[in-house]
Design brief:
Radius of gyration of chain A: 13 Å
Number of strands of chain B: 11
Helix content of chain B: under 10%
Strand content of chain B: over 45%
Largest interface: A-B, 25 and 23 residues
Shape of chain A: globular
Largest sheet of chain B: 7 strands, mixed
Distance between the termini of chain B: 39 Å
Order of helices and strands of chain B: EEEEEEEEEEE
Radius of gyration of chain B: 13 Å
Helix content of chain A: under 10%
Distance between the termini of chain A: 36 Å
Oligomer: heterodimer
Strand content of chain A: over 45%
Amino acid sequence: DIQMTQSPSSLSASVGDRVTITCRASQSISRYLNWYQQKPGKAPNLLISGAYSLQSGVPSRFSGSGSGTEFTLTISSLQPEDFATYYCQQSYSTPYAFGQGTKLEIK
Amino acid sequence: QLQLQESGPGLVKPSETLLLTCTVSGGSISSTSYYWGWIRQPPGKGLEWIGSIYYSGSTYYNPSLKSRLTIHIETSKNQFSLHLNSVTAADTAVYYCARENDSRGFDHWGQGTLVTVSS
């Protein structure tokens, strides 16, 4: 089974900051990597699929990159609504696996 | 607009069967482009993929749950369901149903339903 590891587990940042979250796969997953945002009490929301493809309606300050085993999610200028928990997920092979999450908090 | 809605009991006794249904509206569950999946999240913890089903009935399950798990699809009702037997407290979680977009992630989710396993 493929394991997904995110870093950091938590992150404090300020509005306007640029932040990067890293996700590593235990083996190559090509570009089959998706990013989700989850706010408390809500279902996850797909932000990016295929490592870098922004979903419709997702602000352009979000971007994804990487391939193989290392991936990043970058938020170029944090907005108040971006404080949430972020998960990566591999869709290369089953069983699909999620990272443990990165909680982005206000500094 | 596609919507998914989970339904089922919020409390299940240990050793019994957890049964949840996901009703899809605003789109056909018989579409050849998508799988339909279940994901769960224990309170305060991360996400775990449970399994997915195609309109034809083809399934794939998480091996960690496979011995206790069955996912069904009923295209005439635009619904799919989750059956998890012999539950324990470790199965307490928010259960989500979602649409899987051809290996491009889960792009539509239900609101989730909390299932507590307790006597």
